[in-house]
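Propose amino acids for all 164 sites.
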């Protein structure tokens, strides 16, 4: 969670909100189909892809697995599992978020003709996606429902009193 320290804004997303936004994305994509299938970018794209598959009645689902890691301060992406063969024409490529665009560029190179859809987009990665629902600032950290748990949160007045 070290990267989180550089972000100024938190954006928690509930399961209900994620589902509502994925359905909104499906409404936008419904007019563009039919789709040959969906390719989910793991891991974040798995849940949105499942919702889109249901809403768009798509039965053929595949994944592309990309790992981005820090190697001596240089970010490097590694394709752990490539997607379906071909240039992606007629396929829907799905992720939860496009952030810096690092993963998106790798996948775009693998499937240049796929239609790339995400629920959330940040400015640095937004030009790489074809369709998205919500744009958030680059300094926002999105907490997806699979990353968080419910717990007590102190009221703001108590937090402020502790700092005084």
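Proposal:
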């Amino acid at each position: 969670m070290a990267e989180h320290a550089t972000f100024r804004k938190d954006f928690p997303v509930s399961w209900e909100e994620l589902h509502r936004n994925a359905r909104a994305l499906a409404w936008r994509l419904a007019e563009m189909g039919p789709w040959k299938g969906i390719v989910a970018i793991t891991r974040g794209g798995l849940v949105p892809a499942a919702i889109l598959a249901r809403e768009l009645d798509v039965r053929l689902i595949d994944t592309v697995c990309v790992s981005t890691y820090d190697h001596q301060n240089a970010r490097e992406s590694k394709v752990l599992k490539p997607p379906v063969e071909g240039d992606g024409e007629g396929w829907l490529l799905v992720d939860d978020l496009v952030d810096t665009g690092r993963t998106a560029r790798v996948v775009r190179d693998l499937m240049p003709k796929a239609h790339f859809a995400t629920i959330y987009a940040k400015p640095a990665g937004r030009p790489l996606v074809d369709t998205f629902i919500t744009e958030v600032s680059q300094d926002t950290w999105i907490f997806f429902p699979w990353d968080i748990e419910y717990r007590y949160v102190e009221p703001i007045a108590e937090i402020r009193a502790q700092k005084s």
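The mean pLDDT is 90. The first helix runs from residue 15 to 30.
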